[in-house]
Structures are given as C-alpha cells and as structure tokens.
Amino acid sequence: MSYSIGVDLGGTNLRIAAVDEQGHLLEKITLGTRLALGRDQVINDMCEAIRGLEATYQGRASLQGIGVGVAGIIDMRKGMLRESPNLPGWADYPVRAEIEKRLGTQVVLENDANCAALGEKWLGAGREVDDMAMLTLGTGVGGGIVLGGRIWHGMTGMAGEFGHMTIEPDGVPCKCGGRGCLEQYASATAVMRMAREKIDAGAAPGLARAASSDPEFSAKTVYKLAIQGDGVAQHVFSLVGSALGIALATMVNGLNLPMYVIGGGVSGAWEAFSPSMFRELRERSMVYAATAPADMAGDQGGLAKVESGTGTRTIITRALLGSDAGLYGAARVAMMGGGW
Amino acid sequence: MSYSIGVDLGGTNLRIAAVDEQGHLLEKITLGTRLALGRDQVINDMCEAIRGLEATYQGRASLQGIGVGVAGIIDMRKGMLRESPNLPGWADYPVRAEIEKRLGTQVVLENDANCAALGEKWLGAGREVDDMAMLTLGTGVGGGIVLGGRIWHGMTGMAGEFGHMTIEPDGVPCKCGGRGCLEQYASATAVMRMAREKIDAGAAPGLARAASSDPEFSAKTVYKLAIQGDGVAQHVFSLVGSALGIALATMVNGLNLPMYVIGGGVSGAWEAFSPSMFRELRERSMVYAATAPADMAGDQGGLAKVESGTGTRTIITRALLGSDAGLYGAARVAMMGGGW
Description:
The structure is a homodimer.
Chain A: E1 2-9, E2 13-20, E3 25-32, H1 39-57, E4 62-70, E5 73-75, E6 80-83, H2 95-103, E7 108-111, H3 112-123, E8 132-137, E9 141-147, E10 150-151, H4 183-186, H5 188-200, H6 205-213, H7 219-227, H8 231-255, E11 259-263, H9 270-284, H10 286-291, H11 297-300, E12 315-318, H12 325-335
Parallel strand pairs in A: 1-4, 4-7, 8-11, 11-12
Antiparallel strand pairs in A: 1-2, 2-3, 5-6, 8-9, 9-10
Helix pairs in contact in A: 1-2, 3-12, 5-8, 7-8, 8-9
C-alpha cells in the first residue's frame, strides 16, 4: 500500500491527514494553529504531526509525498506566500523551504482552494468529469480550476482567484485592493456584514433579536432565520446568490466547463441562495442557456446526477466532501508530484 | 509545399485566403457578404472562391484543410451557429454541413475570435508564449483562449466569450440577454453609444460638430478628437479603458496567463484607453500586481517585448496582425486538424 500526507494549514485549524491511493482516510490529526507563538512554532507543530504519521505507517505503507494547502496567493516557483489573509506576517517567510528543512524531504505547497477543487475532482462532485472549476465560500471566497484532471496553475501558480472577480465596480472595498469583489458578497464575512447593516439600519427585527440573544450569532444563524421565513435574512442570501450568479456567468461564458462546484461553509445555505444564483446565471450567460441541463436538475436539487459520457451539459452543483475537500486534495497533489 | 485555406465570414465582408505552412499569405480574396440573397448564396460564393484557390494551387501545393471563422456561439459538435449576431437567421442552418456538401470535403467551423487568438499566437503578438487570451474589440467584443498552443474550446466549443462578462450588474442591456456586458462598454458600437449620449445631453460641442459635419462619423472620429485633446472624447475612451481593466483583472486573477492580447478595430485607440485600463487592472488584480513587468513596458508602450523563457511576467499588449488575424487563424485551425 502507498499513501500520502495532506496538510490544511488554516488561520484557526491545522489539520494533517494520511490518505491512501484509493482516497481512504487512514488517520486525521486536528490541531489549533498557534499563530501567536510565531511562524516557526506553527511549522514545528505541523512537522511533528507529519513525522508522527510517518512513524505510524513506517514499514506498512510507502509514503508518496506531502502536500500542504494554505490560503493565499502562492508563488509556486519560490514556495512562498505572496498574500496571506489568514496568516498575517507570513508573506516574506519561505514556507516550503522551512518545512523541507525540518523534514529533510520535498513537499508541495499549494493554494487551499486549488486543493479543495482537486479533492472534489478526485473523490467528490467532480469524479465523472476531467475539467471543472470550484468556488469555496468560507471566511473569504477561494477558487480553483482543474483541467484534464490536474490543477490549472497558470504561469506562476496564481490562477483560480475567482473570489476577487469584480461583481460591483463601485462596490464594497476589498482587502485585495479592489472594490466589489465576489468575496465581499458571497463569503461568511459578507453575510455577516450585510446582516449587521440591516440590523444597524433598524430594518431587521428578527436578525436584531438573534444577534442580541445568541452569543454565537453567525452566517449560519442568518441562514437558519432565512429558512424559517425571515424576509430580511432571505434577502441577504438572495444577494449572495445574485453575486454568485454573476460570477458563474462570467466563468461559464469564459471557460465552458462541464462542471462548477460550490463548496465551503456558506454552500450549506444552498437552499437560500441558489434560486437567485440560477436566475442571474441563466439571464447573463448565453453559454449556460445553451447548455443547461434540460430537466433543470441542477437548478433544482443542486445535486444533479452527471450524465457520464455525454458532456454537453453545464452542471452547477454543491461540493460533496465538506471541509475535508482541501485535505484530500493536498494529499492528492502530493501523489501527483505537484503537477507543476 | 503545403497550404490551407482560411475563411473569415463576417456580416459585411467575406474573405478567403490561401496560407502556406510557414504563415505566408499566398492569395487573399475579398468579397461582400451578400446576406440579402440568402444563406445558400453566401455559402455558394464562399465555395466558389475556395474552389478557385484550389484550382490555382492544384499540382503546386497540397491542401491541408479548410477553416471557416464566423462570429457567434458555435456548437462545434453539430457545426451550427447557436447565436449569430452578424448573420441573422442563420441559427438553424447547418453551416458546416452545407459547406462540406458543396466542396465534398471536411471543413472546420470555428468562432472568429478564437481564430483571431490562434492567428496572433501563430504569427503575431503571442508567438513566444504557449498560453494566451485575446479580446477582439470590433462591432462587438469577442474573445479567445489559447492553451498549450491550441484553442481552448471548453465542453461544447463555446469558451472565450469574454465580451459578455458582466462589468456593471445594472448596466446597459445587451442583446445576449444580460446587462452591463463588456461589449456594451468596449466595442465600436459602445463608443458610438457613449458619444451620442454625450451629444444628446448637450455636453459635447466638439463631438456634436463632428457628428453633424462628418458623414462618416464613427468610433474612429471619436478617437481622433480624443488625441486632439477633446475632453469628452477622452472621457469616452477612459470609460472603455476602465471596462477593459475590470475585465482583464478578472481574467488575470482567474487564469494567470503570461499574455493577454487586445485586437480589433478599437484597439487602434490604445493610446486613448490604455492608461485607465492599466490603472483599473493594477488596482483590481493582485495577481497582476504580483506579476506585472518590472519596467512597466506593458503599461507604457503597449508593445512590450516578451522576455522569452522567463515566464513570470504578465504581458498585456496590442495585437499585431490587424484584421487579418482571424483569416490566418482560420487557416491555422485547418492545418491543426480542428484540434477539438
């Protein structure tokens, strides 16, 4: 048996998993990311866990490689983060070299949303297609493209940054330097901003009650209110859906892929945002209109069955692997030798 | 010697060229597209010209193939137009089959902007790169993607429709069904619309004078006024540039290609629109900011020299082949056997 190790280095959690070549999870370790103790400590924690897994499987399985997924713009040639929203202060830190120095072996550093896309391609929603794109709706919005079964990196490894597509030219300023980016309308952060704005305007009694009584008031709370019939909460998610529809229309018109997968925590609110998403997409993309599933399964259930082998329908669907997509993808990246 | 025949079937002109495998133009025939006489007549005109070229080179060179570029959304499997802005009434017409029936040989039907992109890759601005995208700014705005030296068709041959990216969600309605598409801000039609709006508002004395005195008042006239210092004409082109910058930012963030080429008639106004284009692009694309040419040659001259072999800089540049790009590309498509 052979296996590889995937790492998901997030701003809150640090997860390390051993995955075999069929995609079975052998073992998963979840740690807190101890950012306050400094970059070296976080890397030490990661490498210690990796060495622990290596020791466990020593003699029983051969290690094919180690893949590390991390949020941010990565310069793949240098193995460094160019922008790192979740890991402040890491931009000048040679992440890949520091890991390799401690482990004495090569590792692949990869954008976390690219990992998630590859994970869904390998074991999730994209199993039946060769080409797909994915949007990951979390604290921010990430994206990844898979072409011919491999991550499409572009020239320097920075492709797939769909979270920073302009949706509203004069819209909400984004930390990327732009304005009106998709991330400002379709992330959990955006859901909370829109909810707070409604509360502050005195126009959302239901949201205001929830915000003052629930110490864990979050995007998920807003979603729960939306499915319970709260009109303001529903409106917030219709704005999320419209922004996604505009983004998908541009992606479908530009790339004409057979599948676009929506994942990340906010994708759990599919029921609340997908009607406006599909409405906007149909209106804005003649390529989608010409290739949408005849039975509108994608529009309705969100878990459309892919007609294997036909390849003339555009499927927009939910991710299947939840928060593990990136972890599986990081392991897969290592099996594929980086692919870049 | 071997050669192929490329056709550019436009709404006004029908051009047919014989091109050898090195890209030398052997002969070019320019006809009017006699749309009023019906689809069959236009196809007959085309096939007669093709047979004429075949007869000329018979025995001297071997014909490798015939490629036909046409504006619109093409279903490549069926060889039919799904949307045909310049050829009204052709959407249910089996274009490829009708040509093949007359010639008794296979032909490749290809989107005209895809042909232009491949032409520029082969003999123009993109000679030194394997991957590039192109925007063609004409009556409408077309687009094409070349990956690994071949046109990226996507699933059904409809990829590259960048002209219908949303730039302004509540913007000018587009005939595609969407609103605020790039085509509504960066085509010759858009330049004329914006100029007329300024004239109608009584806010453009220079443009009004030109419009009433010049029977051939066009986007080119607006450009000439802009470089002569007319503030309103300059403003119109700064809006063209902003729209292009927004579109390019999304393309650069999403695809991370080494080169984006701007062609078509309106690209002749580069001097007038490129400053706002680059300003908007830098502000909105962190991928561009991280990969822009250090000397800003691309920003300034528009005809940046590509540093061959380095491949870490994003070049935005003007097309080099003018209106022949699509014709060369159609011939090239045929040499490559369609590639789909």
